[in-house]
């Protein structure tokens, strides 16, 4: 369904936009809806359905605005040797790469041991950033439809530099202005939501990429506001459905926005619980607790002397050139709090694949998740997509040691692909890190049964509604799984997988 936008009091800074909720001036004395439960899920579902008349910007207008913001500022990123880093140095004694302020992050070494898989132990560089950042999206209702304040934000590692980002995307060092730059717009709405008249819709600590970050967390928040906000030129109000449309485009909606939106309570436990699921919520949690008990050793060690790694003037990389390398860039960004800086980045070798395989049980879609160990995760193991890997890194392995179901995903015919797009990973720390995200129907039943009803060890079937419930708590779903969940919740994978549809787990 969609809802027409009717004339009303204008929102400052947004020409032609009506006020909210039918209250004079667009502001409310207090929250008119409960902040949890089916009512909120229905409001989010209405926003996910609003891609045309329910929104006050057409998709083509969003594209025009985005291109205008791309041309409004000067952006440039160039590779530099480590010797040209300003304010960064390799520390005597350890070789760790850190900032002179002692803040931001360091690149250190990591010694890893895991209980299973073809690679049981290894050493690697890792980003250590112990401070918790804020990823926050403001929500506001316009004529009965929730909109989300999204930002056109430059990150040095993004393949196309400018992407659609949360309202606020800031490390603690940045919002405390260790860099000496400008204030982060709208930050107080998330640090003090009640004092600033907002209401928290979701709030959880979530992990980042466990392969490249050591126990890095961000606070993922959506805060609803009731007063008029005049967006800066780099910000626009969009519906959840419009964001879903943009998720079908390559490298447009950034990782942080996807992570936050995965926690939007499009479904609610009291409304859906584990209805239609082949495994109850209790069974799913018990299975995951057992999987999380598996042995994962991750110990920080000096960056100097990592076995199999070498440091040159431009790169720190493996002797065989595989997996990833550490390098440095100089950045110019006219729209950022600081307009120029240098920093290290991790540059992956090869494009990743992250895919959910879907099967229907009694007409209800389920996705196959794996309990995946990643050395940098806070608890060692989180729920991940069915397939998550860089295929080139496993090409030399035997069929038995290759990631399960990789061939099912890579061999999927177009009629079995519900969603496919190349999306970049975190652009503030990784250079040109891209993954091909897919949602793939399991092959039809046959004698070979490449995707069994009873999954192998380490895998389990779960409904999108069950995953949505877990995503509202910290450290259950990894960032790749949260991306695919945001695709489902925003409608980007089609209505048959939407957890609010009759086919997604509710009646």
UniProtKB/TrEMBL annotation:
Pfam family, one: Hexose_dehydrat
Stretches for region Disordered: 1-39
The organism of origin for this protein: Streptomyces ferrugineus
Residue ranges annotated for the dTDP-4-dehydro-6-deoxy-alpha-D-glucopyranose 2,3-dehydratase domain, each copy included: 60-262, 282-487
Biased composition (Low complexity): 7-21
GO molecular function annotation: lyase activity
Protein name per the record: NDP-hexose 2,3-dehydratase family protein
